């Protein structure tokens, strides 16, 4: 039987509200609200030097801040551990080479590249934070606009950065391969997707799977103090792939719809 | 089949212009001046500054002759003798249990205030003290009545009736205590097939209606048989209806819950929590309640 306390099936998500371009001084931003889970992601693109082992690629840096208002356990310094945990998970998820086209972030090999600083702010924790954060990161990456820059070298060797005059002339990132995290929590003998706080309290173990829109798994992580049977891990992986694909389809449809509304879209932001 | 719905956020105004509600209520926010007349005595929720009476909480001003107080709209539960509460055991102490009831202090359930299994009436001995954990453990949910209030405001509960005791399978919804209407009885058997206990402290317990009503258990045996799917659907629907009523700040009592349930029948259970469906259901329920009154 497929019935949870709030009437959803085991693979149903709660109603999500996604809005991009909410923070004006970032290169890209997104806010995701899953009933009572609220996440804000801002991306700033800055120029930096590429890493030594990958001289012709840019890179991403993640920083997660769990606001003390999110839940009572996070007051004071309690949010730091959770923040580093989420950041490490995001690094793992995006460690796959194809997820973001890092070569497009290169300006001059071995000298300049774009570094995307992804800042995640967890405003309210109502269960299923990893999924909400990954949806917000994907939406923010879709919304990111990086200005086109050329670095010219003078005769004496001084570098000049030339920015294009048109503020709308910018590069957009291709987010087709960006993975989204699906959290499957094991409750009893079944597993559920998008657990609320009450359901998370009842589940002893969960599996975090990051899935791309084509269904390929990029990383997997088990959390919780309980144990998971290998057969149930297979089942959960299959469910995760299926759910992940439909999640990507819904998100891409919404992002395209939002894009097509253009500047006529009424901005709701935080005052709605 | 997974169902994922995503949407763009929309600004939603308050649902349904409130019909004229009798006398005008004097609503204040913290810092608002209530009156500059010095002849009044100040009650809860007020303070005096510069010869003015100022509100310290957000709520409704209540005046009884010369006493002015402000009753907050969202506050912790303040116990009154005779209230029904639903609480969760947090600690097992020497001769009593500490119960969490969404109030400022944990409530107390004395060993002498419970019904021993089997319905015996005797003095509680040392063995009873040692066997306390067999009756109620940490994490159990109970329904009880307020017997008295201690001087510091802590509430003392009792379960000295067969209708109170440990709660078995069901769903708990936590709401603000001010939204639960005071009525003659708080145990309702709804005609849709489930029963509900509206605790005055804001804890609402929804459970499947038991078939046999006359059990001599005394409220300590828990029925852990699996609940049939039809009952579970009714309970989920009721839970979503209560959440919808609370989101729109409507008073909770058996008639409002029933009207909301009936208005939600054409929709699927999981759709009730979508904002537009919620508004539609609430409008219909509110209309029926207004027709009932006037």
TrEMBL record, chain A:
One GO term of the biological process aspect: rRNA catabolic process
**GO cellular component annotations of the record:** cytoplasmic exosome (RNase complex); nuclear exosome (RNase complex); nucleolus
Key words, A-Z: Acetylation, Cytoplasm, Exosome, Nucleus, RNA-binding, rRNA processing
> Which organism is the protein's source?
Scytalopus superciliaris
Which SUPFAM superfamilies does the UniProt entry name for this protein? Ribonuclease PH domain 2-like, Ribosomal protein S5 domain 2-like
Q: What is its main location?
A: cytoplasm
| Entries under InterPro entries matching the protein | ExoRNase_PH_dom1, ExoRNase_PH_dom2, ExoRNase_PH_dom2_sf, Exosome_comp_Rrp42_subfam, PNPase/RNase_PH_dom_sf, Ribosomal_Su5_D2-typ_SF
**Assembly and binders:** Component of the RNA exosome core complex (Exo-9), composed of EXOSC1, EXOSC2, EXOSC3, EXOSC4, EXOSC5, EXOSC6, EXOSC7, EXOSC8 and EXOSC9; within the complex interacts with EXOSC2 and EXOSC4. The catalytically inactive RNA exosome core complex (Exo-9) associates with the catalytic subunit EXOSC10/RRP6. Exo-9 may associate with DIS3 to form the nucleolar exosome complex, or DIS3L to form the cytoplasmic exosome complex. Exo-9 is formed by a hexameric base ring consisting of the heterodimers EXOSC4-EXOSC9, EXOSC5-EXOSC8 and EXOSC6-EXOSC7, and a cap ring consisting of EXOSC1, EXOSC2 and EXOSC3.
Protein's cellular compartments? Cytoplasm; Nucleus, Nucleolus
Q: Under what name is this protein listed?
A: Exosome component 7
| Molecular function per GO | mRNA 3'-UTR AU-rich region binding
Organism placement in taxonomy? Eukaryota, Metazoa, Chordata, Craniata, Vertebrata
Question: Boundaries of each Exoribonuclease phosphorolytic domain copy?
Answer: 13-147, 178-242
Q: Does the keyword Isomerase apply?
A: no
Specify the superkingdom: Eukaryota
Family, according to the entry, reads as follows:
Belongs to the RNase PH family.
Gene3D superfamilies cross-referenced by the UniProt entry: GHMP Kinase, N-terminal domain
Q: Which sequence ranges are marked TM in the entry?
A: none
From TrEMBL, chain B:
Q: Give the record's GO biological process terms.
A: CUT catabolic process; exonucleolytic trimming to generate mature 3'-end of 5.8S rRNA from tricistronic rRNA transcript (SSU-rRNA, 5.8S rRNA, LSU-rRNA); nuclear polyadenylation-dependent rRNA catabolic process; poly(A)-dependent snoRNA 3'-end processing; TRAMP-dependent tRNA surveillance pathway; U4 snRNA 3'-end processing
For this record, an example GO cellular component is:
nuclear exosome (RNase complex)
Task: Give the signal peptide range.
Answer: none
Q: What domain of life does the native source organism fall in?
A: Eukaryota
Classification via InterPro entries: Exosome_cplx_N_dom, Exosome_RNA_bind1/RRP40/RRP4, KH_dom_type_1, KH_dom_type_1_sf, NA-bd_OB-fold, S1_domain, S1_RRP4
| CDD domains for the chain | KH-I_Rrp4_eukar, S1_Rrp4
Molecular-function annotations in GO: RNA binding
- Keywords from the UniProt entry: Cytoplasm, Exosome, Nucleus, Phosphoprotein, RNA-binding, rRNA processing
What name has this protein been given in UniProt? Answer: Exosome complex component RRP4
């Amino acid at each position: 039987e497929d019935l949870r306390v709030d009437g959803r099936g085991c693979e149903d998500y709660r109603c999500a509200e996604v809005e991009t371009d909410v923070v004006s001084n970032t290169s890209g931003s997104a806010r995701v609200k899953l009933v009572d889970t609220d996440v804000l992601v801002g991306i700033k693109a800055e120029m930096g030097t590429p890493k030594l082992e990958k001289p012709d690629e840019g890179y991403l840096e993640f920083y997660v801040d769990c606001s003390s208002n999110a839940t009572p356990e996070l007051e004071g310094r309690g949010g730091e551990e959770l923040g580093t945990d989420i950041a490490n998970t995001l690094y793992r998820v995006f460690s796959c080479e194809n997820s973001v086209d890092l070569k497009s972030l290169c300006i001059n090999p071995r000298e300049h590249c774009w570094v995307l600083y992804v800042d995640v702010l967890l405003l309210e924790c109502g269960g299923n934070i990893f999924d909400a954060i990954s949806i917000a990161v994907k939406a923010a990456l879709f919304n990111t606009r990086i200005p086109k820059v050329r670095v010219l070298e003078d005769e004496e060797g001084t570098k000049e950065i030339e920015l294009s005059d048109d503020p709308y002339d910018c590069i957009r990132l291709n987010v087709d391969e960006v993975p989204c995290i699906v959290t499957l929590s094991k409750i009893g003998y079944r597993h559920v997707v998008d657990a609320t706080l009450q359901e998370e309290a009842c589940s002893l173990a969960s599996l975090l799977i990051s899935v791309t829109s084509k269904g390929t798994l990029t990383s997997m992580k088990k959390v919780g103090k309980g144990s998971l049977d290998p057969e149930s891990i297979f089942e959960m992986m299959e469910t995760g792939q299926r759910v992940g694909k439909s999640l990507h389809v819904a998100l891409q449809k919404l992002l395209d719809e939002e894009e097509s509304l253009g500047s006529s879209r009424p901005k709701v932001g935080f005052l709605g | 089949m997974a169902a994922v719905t995503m949407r763009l956020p929309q600004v939603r105004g308050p649902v349904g212009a409130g019909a004229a509600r009798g006398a005008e209520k004097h609503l204040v926010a913290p810092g608002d001046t209530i009156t500059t007349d010095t002849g009044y005595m100040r009650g809860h929720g007020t303070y005096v500054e510069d010869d003015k009476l100022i509100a310290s909480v957000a709520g409704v001003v209540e005046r009884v002759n010369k006493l002015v107080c402000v009753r907050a709209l969202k506050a912790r539960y303040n116990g009154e003798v005779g209230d029904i509460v639903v609480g969760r055991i947090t600690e097992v102490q020497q001769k009593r249990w500490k119960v969490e009831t969404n109030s400022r202090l944990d409530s107390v359930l004395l060993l002498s205030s419970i019904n021993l299994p089997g319905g015996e009436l005797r003095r509680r001995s040392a063995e009873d003290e040692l066997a306390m954990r067999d009756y109620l453990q940490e994490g159990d949910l109970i329904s009880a009545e307020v017997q008295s209030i201690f001087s510091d405001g802590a509430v003392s509960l009792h379960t000295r009736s067969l209708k109170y005791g440990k709660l078995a399978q069901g769903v708990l919804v936590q709401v603000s205590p001010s939204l639960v209407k005071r009525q003659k009885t708080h145990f309702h058997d709804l005609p849709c097939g489930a029963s509900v206990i509206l605790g005055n402290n804001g804890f609402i317990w929804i459970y499947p209606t038991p078939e046999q009503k006359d059990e001599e258990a005394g409220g300590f045996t828990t029925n852990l048989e699996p609940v049939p799917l039809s009952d579970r659907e009714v309970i989920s629907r009721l839970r979503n209806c209560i959440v919808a009523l609370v989101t729109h700040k409507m008073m909770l009592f058996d008639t409002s819950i029933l009207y909301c349930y009936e208005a939600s029948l054409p929709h699927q259970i999981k759709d009730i929590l979508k904002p537009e469906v919620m508004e539609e259901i609430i409008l219909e329920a509110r209309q029926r309640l207004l027709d009932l009154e006037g």
